[in-house]
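Team,

Forwarding the record for the chain on the shared tracking sheet. I've put the sequence and predicted structure together so nobody has to dig through attachments.
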Amino acid sequence: MQFPMDQDMQVSALITDRNRQVAKWVREEMCSEGTRHFFDVWHIGKSIQRALDAAAKERDCEDLKLWRPAIINHLYWTAASTPTGDPDEMEAKWQSMINHVQDIHEHSTPAFTSCAHPPLEGEARDKEWLEPGSPAATKLESVAARKALVKDIRQLSPQHQTFSLEAYHSLILHFAPKHTGFSFLGMYSRLLLAALHFNSNGNRDVARTSEGEARYAVRYPRFRKGGWVVHPIKEKPSYGYATNLMVSLVEEYCKSPQALQESSAVLSSSCTAPPHLFPPEGCQG
């Protein structure tokens, strides 16, 4: 974050996971400058899933397992349906879930007085509602109304999430795997290639059949524990950026081989030595 701050750039919003040290630093160093700090929804959802799985194992709380997918969907809806990021509204929407699973759809909170869904009929009405005051309903309220969780719910990111950054970090491992050591220039070059590849292919369109229909695939993510999700199949990645690099290199070499060699020498001279080449502090030699 130091780089944009040094460039006198105002960071209006920052989205991170729930790391408490990061949250404390952002609150002390950036919020006073007008930065709003949001939390990624997926990370909070993962925490809630673990809590619900543990609660469902307790006596007379088995029905919580049936409601887990709907509760996580409601978490995402809470953020997505509040584009302004109003914390009071998001808190009220989240708390309404505790009433909804008990077949109660009117709420006492001014920010969200009733469920947004239409009147339930047919299959939508035929659900395993939790009995008010039952062990399952009481346990769910203790999980969903925890002060620490509600505080984090108030900071849900309504629009942007961290998944694209995490995808970029995963891509870096393809260009620079951890099991291989690289020189400074080698690592620097591979990071640049990873960034070029990501920027060139991050917004690929959905692949289509010969009839023009979008293609999808069913996947079984490990965190779903047997549950399935539908993912769009993207078009194959392109490597035009590599061709452009090679063309530019040839053009620069044809113009002036000496200038290209000098640029390479300047880059090499700017490399810092690996930490293990420096003598320990206090050592003479």
